[in-house]
Amino acid sequence: MVYDTNNIFAKILRGEIPCKRVYEDEFALAFHDIAPKAPVHVLVIPKGAYVTYDDFILKADAAAVVGFERAIAKVVEITGVSSAGYRLISNSGVHGGQEVPHYHVHLLGGHVMGPMVK
Ligand code: 5GP
């Protein structure tokens, strides 16, 4: 899988484009989606250059995978959605509707999310 180093999230990671940061550690960066689809809509991205979920899970080392997953849980905590509930989504490729080719997880919450797929 070829990674495009000029994708918008790569530019955010390099600090070339600003973002509203929610959380950051050595494994992940989390920031508010520019076009939120729910009261809470945060994108969590790994620091490494991975295109999709499978690209990340199959290629990243175990520490990076665990670190990334824990970062998502920290963002759940920070955004306060844990008790009421939330939804995690990761779109991959054309059929998945992925717009930005840097692996990311959407954290959505703050209201009832409705049907999983319309
Ligand atoms: P995808 O469809 O790839 O899963 O989702 C990409 C998400 O990135 C979309 O929800 C879109 O609103 C968000 N997005 C695109 N460009 C930017 C940007 O420059 N900044 C931020 N914060 N979000 C962006």
Summarize the structure.
With 118 residues, this protein is an alpha+beta fold. It is built from four helices and five strands.
Molecular structure report:
The chain is an alpha+beta fold and 118 residues long. It is built from four helices and five strands. It has helices at residues 8-13, 53-59, 62-79, 93-96; strands spanning 21-24, 28-32, 40-46, 86-89, 105-109. Strands 1-2-3-5-4 form a five-stranded antiparallel beta sheet, with helices on one face. The chain is globular. The mean pLDDT is 97. The protein binds guanosine-5'-monophosphate. Guanosine-5'-monophosphate binds at residues 8, 17, 19, 31-35, 43, 91, 97-100.
List its salient traits:
118 residues; alpha+beta; 5-stranded antiparallel beta sheet; 4 helices; globular; binds guanosine-5'-monophosphate
Topology:
Layout: H1 8-13, E1 21-24, E2 28-32, E3 40-46, H2 53-59, H3 62-79, E4 86-89, H4 93-96, E5 105-109
Antiparallel strand pairs: 1-2, 2-3, 3-5, 4-5
The structure holds guanosine-5'-monophosphate.
